[in-house]
Amino acid sequence: MSDLKALLERAERAVSAVPMPPDGLIGLQRRRDRRRRNQRLSAGVVGIAVFVSAVGIVTTGVPFDRTETPAVPGGAGSGPALDPFTSINAQLSGDQRVDLFKVQTTDPQYWQLYVLDQFDGEGWRSSDPDGTEGGQIEGGQIVNLSPPVSPPPDSETRSSYAFTILRRFDSGLPVPEQINPPANLIVMAGDLGDVTWNPYLEQAFVDGGLDAGLEYTVRSRIVVPTPEELDQVQNLAPWQYGRWTELPDDLDPAVRQIALEWTADAASAYDKVVAIQRHFHSVGFTYSTDVDAADDADALLTFLTQTKTGFCQQYATAMAVLVRELGIPARVAVGFRAGTFQDDGTYLVQSTDAHAWVEVFFEGYGWLSFEPTPGHGNHPNAQAGTYLNP
Amino acid sequence: MRVVDQQAAAVTGSPEGLRVPLAFEEVYETERERLFRALLLVTHDSAEAEDLMQEAFVRMWERWDRVGTLDDPVGYLFKTGLNLHRSAIRRAVAATKRSLRPPPDHDPFEKVIDHDEAVRSLAALTPRQRAAVVVTELLGYSSEEAGTILGIRPGTVRTLTAQARAALQEWKEREDV
Question: C or N terminus of chain B, fewer CB within 10 Å?
Answer without folding.
Answer: C
